[in-house]
Amino acid sequence: MHDVVEWLKENGNLKIINEPLDVELEIPHIAYIEVKKDDSRPILFTNPINRAKNIHYDMPVLMNIFANKALTEKIFAKHPDKVAEGIDKLLKLKPPAGFIEKLKMIPELFVLKNVFPKRLNKRGACQQVVIPKEQVDLDKLPILKTWEEDGGPFITMGQVYTQSLDGQMQNLGMYRLQQYDKNHLGMHWQIHKDASHFFDQYQKAGKKMPVTVGIGGDPLYIWCGQAPMPHGMFEMLLYGFVRGKNAQLVKSLSNDIYIPKDVDIVIEGFVDPEKMRIEGPFGDHTGYYTLEEPYPIMEVETITMKEKPVFQATVVGKPPLEDKYMGWATERIFLPMLKPMAPDLIDYYMPENGVFHNLILGKMKTLYKGHAQQFMHAFWGVGQMSFVKHAIFVGVDAPELEDDIAITEYILNRLDPSKILITQGIIDALDHTANENLVGGKLGIDATGSEVESTIETPLDDATLLQKFQEIDKSILECKQYFTHTKNPICVITVNKTASVMSDIEKVYGLQEHIKVLIIVDKTNNDIEEPYMLLWRVVNNIDAQRDIITQPFIIVDGTNKSEVDGFNREWPGDTFCTKEVLDSLQERGLIDIDETFIKKFGLLPFN
Ligand SMILES: Cc1cc2nc3c(=O)[nH]c(=O)nc-3n(C[C@H](O)[C@H](O)[C@H](O)COP(=O)(O)O)c2cc1C
């Protein structure tokens, strides 16, 4: 893949938009809407501008490279399941018993020759143009501002290359980078991530940390950057394994970090461990803004690039987005790596509206009592899987995990409050719901057993049930029941919240004969008719320890929390598109969306 744009024209149905478009909101909004479509395409914006700063950039912006499953598979040049098969084989290698066995192993070991990256002793194509320190100006790059309330422009597809203090470990991580000015970037490596561990080492030693950021080149670099490789394993090993070709690296010009020779743009510099700066807010892949927090900053020493660079970028926000397809490949490829710790795991699936760590489904063979609980603890204890907030395990007889309706029916028919585990553990740095940062509630549901006996004693229709709710509390505004044909129908109500929902929840206990599972959400910005976004909201918005009770029936408080709930952190807002920008793009024929689309994906606020 020498020229990604040419390759995408031939293989990816690349859309090319030549109209001048602003890097602030316009380009990101178009890409955001495109990737939500069923037949989404990658887009090349050939004429990026910044009206506020009066800049016409001299390089195009390429977005939605991982626009769909078919294209993602083409980028890998094979189905991710095939990559997983290769990894599985390697993990199961046994010492050969004799000469014939040794010979049989050769093809399997042969793939390893491609794994180790090669360090070249020459400059790469990424260093054709060299911009020295005094001329460095990040404003020359078409860095996007995705959301109106973002704290500034952010590089969203940066490959961040770092190394440990002793130089023994290399790392590639995909972390967003806030542009502060002409030569400073905010390094949003979260506390659990590898680059943050390296940063600690430099900080303790009082030394500046070399960092090089690559943008562009083979899209597989960026996928490798987000892959949850175990600590200490350089992601370029995975690159070599997948591509069947060693990564070719060249040394940065102003520090010792090696980067792929064919990335489009290289930003080299150092992070001074003494200096931190407020990073954010930034509309994140959770669909919420992440709040302002101090993060390290990089001072740029040099920028190098290809003669004709392409600026790769992505948009994160409410699902589905490009990270859905990257995440799909990750999920498939990492299945064999989960099996050594959970050998009876058959498959797992992270539904896109669970934004990865908020919901995971696992299919397993249960061999003993407590087996599913053992898996819950295993998942919550290992690597980035430990960020998972809600884990549901189903048995071998369960339907396909990706069959949303069938699997939900299966789970609801087996949902038993005595098989729900609520505990505490580590959570993703982006999580906004826990009472304190980084540690919060975990929910595990063991749905591996047989169907439960009990169901609703006296079912009611939505209107009658709403009436009963309103007799109890006038702030309950709507009621809709889902999966009423199962043993545990889900009743969703919306409220106009003015006080804590859970503090006097006993008032609805009298409805016990009509309800099995009650989910409460705010009326504002939630459409009771849109289960896709409701699931997104609820798994995002709860801390299981605080917001779920299981008796006398299951109640989940999915409302936003505030001081009325005794919640003292700031509750972030949703990522919403800017209406004027949508209207203007629509008028110019650059997008084509209707009210249904806007509601379906929660593009704009509503009451
Ligand atoms: C689009 C996208 C943006 C991301 N942004 C960040 C980020 O800003 N900070 C971060 O710590 N992780 C971010 N991640 C997740 C990391 O890339 C991921 O956890 C990766 O495995 C980290 O690598 P590491 O374990 O080598 O640190 C992002 C992932 C994606 C797909």
Radius of gyration: 25 Å
User: Which architecture of the largest domain does the CATH hierarchy give at level 2?
Assistant: Roll
In CATH, the topology of the largest domain is named Pnp Oxidase, Chain A
Number of domains: 4
What is the number of helical segments per DSSP (H or I, 4+ residues)? 16
Q: Which small molecules are bound? A: flavin mononucleotide
**Average residue pLDDT:** 96
Structural class by sheet pairing and helices: alpha/beta
Helix content: 25-40%
**What fraction of residues sit in β-strands?**
15-25%
Major β-sheet annotation: 9 strands, antiparallel
CATH class of the largest domain equals: Mainly Beta
Low-confidence stretches: none
CATH superfamily of the largest domain: Electron Transport, Fmn-binding Protein, Chain A
Model description:
This protein is of the alpha/beta class and 607 residues long. The protein folds into 4 domains: 4-313, Pnp Oxidase, Chain A (Roll), CATH 2.30.110; 337-447, UbiD C-terminal domain-like; 462-565, UbiD C-terminal domain-like (3-Layer(aba) Sandwich), CATH 3.40.1670; 576-607, no CATH class. Helices cover 26% and strands 24% of the residues. The protein has 16 helices and 31 strands. Strands 8, 9, 10, 11, 12, 13, 14, 17 and 20 form a 9-stranded antiparallel β-sheet that branches. A hairpin with a 4-residue loop joins strand 4 (48-50) and strand 5. Helix 4 (80-91) runs parallel beside helix 9 and helix 7 packs across helix 8. The longest helix has 17 residues, at 322-338. It is globular and about 75 Å long. The mean pLDDT is 96. The chain binds flavin mononucleotide (FMN). Flavin mononucleotide (FMN) is lined by residues 171, 173-176, 188-190, 193-195, 225-228, 285, 314, 316, 323, 326, 384.
